[in-house]
Amino acid sequence: MHLAAHFPGVDNTTVWADPDSGSQIEFASFEHLARTAERGLFDFLFLAEGLRLREHKGRIHDLDVVGRPESITVLNALAAVTERLGLAATVDAGFNEPYELARRFATLDHLSGGRAAWNVVTSSDAFTGENFRRGGYLDRAERYPRAAEFLDTARELWDSWTPDGIPRPFAHRGRHFDIAGEFTLPRSPQGHPVVIQAGDSEEGREFAASAADVVLARQRSLEDGRVFYADVKRRLAKYGRAPGDLKIMPGVGVVLGDTAAEAQERAAEIRRQQTSPQTALLTLEQIWGVDLSSYDPDGPLPDIDPVVDPALAHGRTRRGDTVAIAEKWRALSKEKGLSIRETVIEAGGRHFFTGTPEAVARELDEHVRREAADGFVLVPHLIPGGLDEFVDRVVPLLQERGAFRTEYRGTTLRSHLGLPEPGNRR
């Protein structure tokens, strides 16, 4: 089983009102979570990205976190206070250039001794793009083609030095990038940084099968996970890849208790803290596309149909068919007799593993054994101590089951993940 830790703070996962919640900016918070993950022998620490403060109805979304350091800078600092933990940064391929970004990741990979990872994301969002020189609008159909060429170009740069340390000129002539010159850094101890991808669409799954080393999945049940796992793994063969060349790791929460009832009670309270009445209404507005401030969050869902208004919630607009989502949520609400807030909690959150440490260890192990996942990215609801209990109480049980390592057997992130070092293509 592979385990990773996500430092939350981009959405409403974190319960900021909790007295044990710390800063999402101070380095001590990042260091605490990283040291805890390494103590637990995790594969990597993962940082998300937010390039612009999100808005709702034309104003900064006041229930969202404001203030987020640049990820690679934080990870360079964490490289100095960790020894084995992988260091993964989310960086948008739409608002960067291949040479500059390849150099930054190669630097992190060298400073950390081969522990860097890049979560490749794309954006067609002109709202975010206003923060950048280009104005940032990229047609949605161009997102993955540009990202694929961006990644391929970065790999050409990482491969431009010979294995014995001799630099060679590079030249890339493509649709999106036309660059030539000499790269400043030799190959790192793991060859290339590990590549992570999180898209769940058809294009995203194909991109992951062709180019990624790790997929951050979003499935909410064992059966959904098995379907996604089988679908993505079967795509690998067409690219000459083996099933083990790509690790599928859903993002999950874990809530523990001394009894099952205590854990369920804690989980319900955490979900309610994550989804306040105001958050529930604003979440619903992202789907319905209209102002719902007059609705009672403890009352029934709107009986009106959604309208398309992408300006309502900049940076938070939900993808997909909003009418279909609304119908699904109405059916769920009717079936279980749920209010607006209860429906958002039930339908909108990530999967939680809830129970005693023994029960959670057993369920995590089952998901891996039944090929619903290769491991998990744990998303704690508290910063910086939200991972401590899992490492202290669940990791030893996973080790007793033979489901998780008892020591690091290598020094690079690729060795933790069981991934081959990429050959030099030049």
Characterize the structure shown.
The mean pLDDT is 90. Strand 7 (169-173) and strand 8 (178-182) form a beta hairpin. Helices cover 38% and strands 15% of the residues. The protein has an eight-stranded parallel beta barrel, surrounded by seven helices. A two-stranded antiparallel ribbon has the order 3-4. The chain has two domains: 2-257 and 356-417, TIM Barrel; 261-348, no CATH class. Helix 2 packs parallel to helix 3 (98-111), helix 9 packs across helix 11 (340-348) and helix 10 (322-336) crosses helix 11. The relative contact order is 0.16. By secondary structure, it is an alpha/beta fold. The chain has helices spanning 27-39, 71-79, 98-111, 126-129, 143-158, 202-211, 222-234, 260-274, 277-288, 322-336, 340-348, 357-369, 388-393, 395-400, 413-417, and strands spanning 2-7, 44-47, 55-56, 59-60, 86-92, 116-121, 169-173, 178-182, 194-197, 214-217, 247-256, 352-355, 375-378.
Strands of the widest sheet, in order across it, are 1-2-5-6-9-10-11-13
Give a short account of the largest sheet: 8 strands, parallel, barrel
CATH homologous superfamily placement of the largest domain: Luciferase-like domain
Which CATH C-level class of the largest domain is it? Alpha Beta
* Spatial separation of the terminal alpha carbons: 34 Å
| Cα-based radius of gyration, to the nearest Å | 22 Å
- State the secondary-structure class: alpha/beta
Strand content: 5-15%
